[in-house]
Amino acid sequence: MHVSIPRVVASESGPAWLTISQLCRRWQLGRKTVYKFIDARILPAWKVGSHLYRVALADVLLFESQNRLPPTSA
User: Fold this and answer.
1) In this structure, is residue 11 part of a structural domain?
2) Of 1, 15, 25, 41, which residue has the fewest beta carbons closer than 10 angstroms?
3) What is the CATH number of the domain that holds 52?
């Protein structure tokens, strides 16, 4: 049985950004773990406002390839 894995696709108008919640679902990890990646500077993230972070799709794909974290379907 083949399982289709949904992918986030960047639009032609610019880069795609993912939220921390989207990354948690994509990788099936907890928020604390994703924030640890950001704090350790192994996952680049941009702070939006005082509490929100966004991660560029290109950085997500690079992180997945370097850390053997394939995206999973929820």
Assistant:
1) no
2) 1
3) 1.10.10
